[in-house]
């Protein structure tokens, strides 16, 4: 088994790009995926899930140039978990997808 995530969705925000020494870049954004099902009454229920996504290097550069809020994209990556302490000293946990490949779709 392999840690692999594939998502097709829309960028929920314009990416936040950070540049580091040596020219390496980091892109942060959210992706919204939509799903629907019928409830017990036969009514269609739409459900949106939000995913936190990060990309490094060349992939981050592609995101910086071509991805804006609402853009439909497909990503392939891995699921990661990390934690940090906020400014109040409380431990916070983050689950995010680290992108290895991106495909620009649609609008």
Automatic annotation (TrEMBL):
CDD domains: SSB_OBF. SUPFAM superfamilies: Nucleic acid-binding proteins (SSF50249). Transmembrane segments: none annotated. GO terms for molecular function: single-stranded DNA binding. GO terms for cellular component: nucleoid. The keyword Nucleotide-binding does not apply. GO terms for biological process: DNA replication. Keywords: DNA-binding. NCBIfam families: ssb. Homotetramer. This is Single-stranded DNA-binding protein. It comes from Flavobacterium laiguense.
